[in-house]
Amino acid sequence: MTQADIARAIRAMHVAGYADVRVVFREGSIIVEAAPEEAAVSAGRPKKQEQVILL
């Protein structure tokens, strides 16, 4: 997994309509996912259905 791969996944999430994205690093995996709804609501953004892209 390269930095470019992670950047592509983040851009894909933004294109899909997710303004808040987080990257989770776990042993043996990297997950790019929509930020929790609480963060979006507190930032004044409407709730969206979560979409997770596993790399």
Task: Break the fold down into its secondary structure elements and pairings.
Layout: H1 3-15, E1 21-26, E2 29-34, H2 37-42, E3 52-54
Which radius of gyration do the C-alpha atoms yield? 11 Å
Fraction in beta strands: 25-35%
Helix content: 25-40%
What is the number of E strands?
A: 3
Count of helical segments?
Answer: 2
Low-confidence stretches: none
Spatial strand order of the main sheet: 1-2-3
Give the distance, in angstroms, between the N- and C-terminal Cα atoms: 8 Å
Q: Which structural category fits the helices and strands? A: alpha+beta
Q: Quick gist of this model?
A:
The chain has 55 residues and is α+β, with helices and mostly antiparallel strands. The chain is built from two helices and three strands; from the N terminus they run αββαβ.
